[in-house]
Amino acid sequence: MISVFGSANMDLVAYVPSAPKMGETVTGRAFRTVPGGKGANQAVAAARAGAQVAFIGAVGDDPFGPALRGALFESGVDTSRLRVEPGPSGIAHIVVEDSGGNSIIVVPGANGTITGCTAEDIEMIARSRALLLQLELPLDAVVAGARAARAAGVPVVLTPAPVVELPNELLDSVDLIVPNEHEAAAITGADDPDDALKILLDRVPEAVITLGSKGALYGSRAGTRLLVPAVPVEAVDTTAAGDTFVGALAVARAEGREPAQALRFASTAAALSVQREGASTSMPSRAEIDAALL
Ligand code: ATP
């Protein structure tokens, strides 16, 4: 089982020819509400990619709460550790341009009420093959999750998004960090991904920097370096490409695949997701990933 301790947001997605500048109004061509949040997205991605997954998090007591729980449940994710907090659920306001690029505002809502792990959360984490963390929960909660996993010998995979200063007390418990190239540059101060990778490996044993359509760069302290090209496809919507990549990567690693194979599995899953609109709705099943890998 893989545990995900993270955010669940309702994504409010507007599709526009190009995103409005400050003070400008543009007419969109479509609007959708889609269950999302980096935590929930990674949970769904991992479940679709073939793992048993438990989600630890919170939704509000608004109408989005049951919809978010239902979406996780339908993807086969264990929601027994998803609590309901008074007030609104988290939301993400997403603008998708015809180019496939996106911009996002996140309002944390119930996610922001989580400040640590309960005894039941810790018990769930301790039973896992991996713990996936992102930074859409308060930092204290993320640190508590990472420490609980480390104490139980469970590998921790951190997606450092949205970017914040990463304290040593967090990174000391992280086994694999997976930033995109912008996050890697912001965290390390190095624009060149090779330089950023070296700096990341001073702080964590393994790192993957995702480079969008340019692929993904992997490094380990043990000295392995891999550049895995993206699968060439026509991108329709890159929302949650990174979360699909991380969810699939975690599944492949939990199944014992070597880094090169695991990265190929993750790149294939992400490439399938960018060919469809939406976040969790665009994530491929294990059968689709396996078929595309042939
Ligand atoms: P997002 O924030 O949109 O979820 P991200 O910025 O976290 O994405 P990216 O680096 O854009 O992550 O993409 C993650 C992975 O998805 C890449 O390493 C690549 O394997 C795959 N990918 C992204 N964009 C494309 C594309 N246009 N074509 C093929 N694969 C892609």
From TrEMBL:
Binding site for ATP: N180, T210, L211, G212, S213, K214, G215, G242, D243
Family annotation (PANTHER family): RIBOKINASE, SUGAR KINASE
Classification via CDD domains: ribokinase
Pathway where this protein functions: Carbohydrate metabolism; D-ribose degradation; D-ribose 5-phosphate from beta-D-ribopyranose: step 2/2
Localization of this protein: Cytoplasm
Protein family per UniProt: Belongs to the carbohydrate kinase PfkB family. Ribokinase subfamily. Belongs to the carbohydrate kinase pfkB family.
Main location: cytoplasm
Subunit structure: Homodimer.
Catalytic activity field: D-ribose + ATP = D-ribose 5-phosphate + ADP + H(+)
Cofactors required: Mg(2+)
SUPFAM superfamilies: Ribokinase-like
Reported function: Catalyzes the phosphorylation of ribose at O-5 in a reaction requiring ATP and magnesium. The resulting D-ribose-5-phosphate can then be used either for sythesis of nucleotides, histidine, and tryptophan, or as a component of the pentose phosphate pathway.
Pfam families attached to this UniProt entry: PfkB
Protein name per Swiss-Prot or TrEMBL: Ribokinase
Cofactor notes: Requires a divalent cation, most likely magnesium in vivo, as an electrophilic catalyst to aid phosphoryl group transfer. It is the chelate of the metal and the nucleotide that is the actual substrate.
A GO molecular-function descriptor: ribokinase activity
Domain Carbohydrate kinase PfkB stretches: 2-285
Active site residues according to the UniProt entry: D243
EC number of this enzyme: 2.7.1.15
